[in-house]
Amino acid sequence: MTIQRAASLEIKGLALASRRAFIRTMIAFLRGKLVESMPHQAIVDVGGVGYLTNIPLTTFDRLPQQGGEVKLLTHHHVTEREHTLFGFFTSDERDLFRLLMDRVSGIGPKMALSVLSGMPVPAFKDAVIRNDTAALARIKGVGKKTAERIVLELKDKVGVVDAWQAAEVAKGTRDPKQEAMSDAVLGLIALGYKQVEAQKAVNEFVRQPGFDPTTSADKIIRESLRGLQ
Q1: Phi, psi (5° rounding) for residue 94?
Q2: Are strands 41-46 and 69-78 parallel, antiparallel or unpaired?
Q3: Each residue's pLDDT tens digit, 43-102
Q4: Alpha-carbon distance 193 to 223, whole Å?
């Protein structure tokens, strides 16, 4: 491969990651009155406009009564045929939803939502860490082959398991700097980078002279992206 060809592919990759991030943040969350809810859908009235969102059961279980105020973090999924909103009660749910769609071959939004409905995020992470494909295969619509692919691609190709484990260790230390660094690595992985790349970029940023230990994960992500481009 020529240097020019490699550079062209790298630029295209960065452009794709930027476009994907832009589309996702077009509607980052909804805050309004819950008009209607079903196990896999919710309608939220925001300023007189009703937004239909597809949700996992884990989010449905935490919704308020009809008429109550609700905030849903959203993923705006765009195809040639339609625009679809997916809503989540927590950022962990949304992050896992995106991770499955982006990093596991053969998994689209419908399957990703089924995974979240079939298993809470902590239980899913634990199953992947322990190579428990049997537990994953019991999720409706997943099956043995998809469960094996989930474990293989998340552990070996993406390396996200190492980041999950590091995040748990950081929480145990109650060190704001370590927690922010771990959250930043997970955020970069969600944007499409591998764990090794994300960890290296974060480490390089925090080692810079004058780094403020109270820097937020969001700022670490922004600054680390400069080093990845």
Answers
A1: -65, -40
A2: unpaired
A3: 999 999 999 999 999 999 999 999 999 999 999 988 888 889 999 999 889 989 998 998
A4: 15
Pick the range with the lowest mean pLDDT from 64-73, 141-150, 158-167, 190-199: 158-167
Contacts of 107 (CB under 8 A, 6+ apart): 100, 101, 115, 146, 150
Q: Which residues of 70-81 are buried (b: 16+ CB within 10 A; e: fewer)?
A: bebbbbebeeee
Domains of the chain: 1-89 (2.40.50.140), 91-158 (1.10.150.20), 161-228 (no CATH)
Query: What's the CA gap between 154 and 157, in Å, rounded?
Result: 6
Write the CA distances from 208 to 15, 63, 219, integer angstroms: 27, 43, 14
Tokens 């239980």 correspond to what residue?
123
